[in-house]
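Could you help me review a protein record that somebody else here produced? This is what I was given.
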Amino acid sequence: MKPRRWDIVLYELAESQVGYFTTAQASDAGLHPVRLVQLERSGDIERVSRGVYRLTRYPLSPFGQYMEASLWPQVRRPDVRGTISYESALALYNISNVNPSKVHITLPPEMRIRRKPPAQLVLHYAHLDPGDIQIVEGIPVTTAERTIRDVHSAHLGSELVQQSVEDARRTGYLSRDQAKQLARELLDGKKS
């Protein structure tokens, strides 16, 4: 039996993105938008937000909401992905007791979104150097060091910032020197 071509194409697309893909990515891979509608109606894919889909046969991931948020900007700009940041990055790394109700993403400052973002997203704008980003489960996330600096500047609270530094050091997301530097700069030298 000959394999279905759309099945192979979508699975390859979604494999590195925890089962998610965008309309633009599917189009670049040769799938016509009408075919996406047919696949959604048949239950092979599901639309999770405007322009973002999930392959229903792909196992659900605890990181799905982060991938969806990261891909959301591609609806209008296929070359741009959001980077998970601020409290959401802390939660993704599991450093601190932060439990954000929304997903925070950072976009380049020159990218302005005219449409209303989904209710579950908080948009931030900043230049991120390549060294400020790492990939976790296929999702771009600000590094622990950048994340801690960001949440400190957003006035998260010194106890949670201190906990983030300590947890990041304990779990290996920060080196000993990075943790000491952050404690000196952000916490007036409190132990880390």
